[in-house]
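Build the 3D complex.
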Amino acid sequence: MPVLDNFFKSAFTVDNVIFGFDEADLKVLLIKRNEEPYKDMLGLPGYFVYQNEDLDSAAYRVLMEITGLRHVYLEQVETFGKVDRHPSGRVITVAYFSLVKIDEYNQFQPSSIAEEISWHSVSKLKNLAFDHKDILLACFNRLKRRVRTYPVGFELLPPKFTLTELQHLYEAILEVTLDKRNFRKKILSMNLLVDLKETQEGVAHRPARLYKFDKQKYEAFTANGYNFEL
Amino acid sequence: MPVLDNFFKSAFTVDNVIFGFDEADLKVLLIKRNEEPYKDMLGLPGYFVYQNEDLDSAAYRVLMEITGLRHVYLEQVETFGKVDRHPSGRVITVAYFSLVKIDEYNQFQPSSIAEEISWHSVSKLKNLAFDHKDILLACFNRLKRRVRTYPVGFELLPPKFTLTELQHLYEAILEVTLDKRNFRKKILSMNLLVDLKETQEGVAHRPARLYKFDKQKYEAFTANGYNFEL
DNA sequence: GCAAAAGTGTTCTCGGTACACCCATGC
DNA sequence: GCATGGGTGTACCGAGAACACTTTTGC
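Done.
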């Protein structure tokens, strides 16, 4: 083996694409950078990985610092390591995406990472610092596939929701429009939803029924190798 | 930003799961390690990434040193970064898998990486150095999914092949048995195969027709967003 | 002639898709 | 009463799955 010291000169970061869903729009949390490089530009929340910290732990740490939430869905997506992607040296970043309920998260946390944090529509993406736009697109594409094998509504919707809200979520992620009757037929036939026998209140039209996910049934399915597909 | 020097102490490597297909068996190239740690154990070919080298370039370099082949299919899969995965320090590895034609590759290259290199059946996996068994399984699972969206026969089979060979390839990757008639119906209906009007010679049974892939048609399909699925 | 693998069609079932009208509420 | 979104069923089509016998070669 060569002189190892030559190789122990790199740094690792994690960057986190935090998705949320708000009415009809898929959103992502971006920070406004308050330090160089790329000062004042929008970018993904992320940070260096400490020497004694696992990659996943670092991703959870960043997520916790930004959102104050634990126990959220988190998935590693891809690692970006172009030589010149970071002006300060060789920095390789491992990209994660996570799914949070926008309304469980009431206010932005005080954070050493960033002062300004805000939600942005995925459909109206701006230029971001570093290669963060590439990273965001890679994570969005992963989410589009993940939605077919994991019931992402568990993570992105409030505990009680209507079927129309659920449909809008799928439409926002997949960037398609779906037929209302076919969507309902399919989603109800999976038996993962519980009719709460409650309805919306205060809406200026016929109030919709509220549903929740049946987590136990989902876990029983997956334990038996069931493959959730929309 | 903190004192950056504290973070530039990690090393990263690439590890490469090189798949090949031989008659009826999916194989993977493993090296016998001739240095500590894990001396004399089997492991994946891999190496440190140089400071001025992109991740993908490093993976191609390792592949070239091991197989002598260029222009092969290569895909990043997942990054493994547990704190204690490498005894020499903090080493994070980016796992890739690649697909090669076993018979284009006649002999193992002289290499600084390893002296003994050999093919092993994926179906009879042993324990490997480091966390390489986890890495191999992650890459195998990725291949199982990839096979539904990419015609892997392009990469793993010789230029001329029989339908039975192609079927055996899919059976080995997916670890299932397929119905011969249904398989042929489906694969031929995709119009990606060209009947070469030649047959096998010297076999002790009815000789099979030989086919090749039509790369142009495949590229035309993918350009139009076609989704290859078996 | 026998062993060994190649080659070939039909039927059934199920899931996907297309499609239009009445209902309950707030104002 | 009107605007707004909620809620409901049927018919068609195509893909996937199950399934058995004849053909061609080497020995």
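Residues 162-164, 180-181, 184-185, 203-209 of chain B lie near DNA strand C (CB under 10 Å from a C1').
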